[in-house]
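[job 0412] stage=fold_complex status=start
inputs:
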Amino acid sequence: MSEWKRFVLDCRQNPKAGCTLCISGSEAEVLDAGEDHVVRKHGFQKSPALRSQLKQFLKEEAFAR
Ligand SMILES: [Zn+2]
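[job 0412] stage=fold_complex status=done
writing structure:
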């Protein structure tokens, strides 16, 4: 069931950020929240390029049944 799919964006993937935040949710939710987070906390500029960059860091969450 694809509606159960969640994606994880883990800031620890970028050790330079020195941040341990981990966001999970649907792909769109994680991209929205992740974009806000890196803009506010890591000084990135909001742009479509940033969004596609974040997308590359998304990992599909293992779903425990
Ligand atoms: Zn962060």
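[job 0412] summary: The chain is about 40% helix and 15% strand.
[job 0412] exit 0
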